[in-house]
Write a structure and sequence with these properties.
Radius of gyration: 16 Å
CATH architecture: 3-Layer(aba) Sandwich
Largest sheet: 5 strands, parallel
Distance between the termini: 11 Å
CATH superfamily: P-loop containing nucleotide triphosphate hydrolases
Strand order of the largest sheet: 2-3-1-4-5
Number of helices: 7
């Protein structure tokens, strides 16, 4: 069994890669954007604050833990911008004795990311455009990675077929 923690800037290809991994492995995907968008849509007339993000992550972790407890492989499709997210993923992997895997979708191309964000059908919680290249670079460099585990960084500027076998091999290690 495994738990995969996805990482990467919005629009970098996390969801696309997650879906391909799930197709090949039968893993369950917990998509943070789906959870957060559902939460935001259910509280339309209430001002959104920092608590919304925290609540949606708590829901994500509850779903992840449930599926791991049922013996299912899980992929967490979310940016990984906080150390706590990595720590929680590692902790749950240890608790359920599953392999911890971390895959970062990396695309250091401001224009391509913006093109993808603008082109996609966005959910309520999703970023629709990046206005500042400086903010993009800062966020890109801020992803948190595990320090005691091997991780995989894939160049999502290439076609998914060019790195999919590498991803599956990494998961199976």
């Amino acid at each position: 069994m495994f738990f995969i923690q996805m990482s990467g800037f919005p629009g970098s290809g996390k969801s696309t890669l997650s879906r391909q991994i799930a197709k090949r492995t039968g893993a369950v995907i917990i998509d943070h954007d789906i959870v957060k968008s559902a939460l935001l849509n259910s509280i339309e007339n209430i001002p959104v604050d920092v608590k919304t993000g925290k609540i949606s992550y708590n829901i994500d972790w509850s779903l992840i833990e449930f599926h791991l407890s049922q013996g299912q492989n899980v992929i967490f499709d979310s940016p990984c911008l906080y150390k706590e997210i990595v720590d929680k993923g590692i902790s749950l992997s240890k608790k359920y004795s599953v392999k911890y895997k971390y895959i970062e979708c990396y695309l250091n191309n401001f224009n391509e990311i913006n093109y993808r964000l603008i082109k996609r059908e966005s959910m309520t919680s999703q970023l629709r455009e990046i206005r500042s290249e400086e903010a993009f670079k800062k966020t890109l460099e801020s992803s948190k990675k595990p320090t005691d585990y091997e991780y995989l960084v894939v160049d999502t500027g290439k076609t998914i077929d060019s790195y999919m076998d590498k991803v599956i091999n990494y998961i199976n290690e």
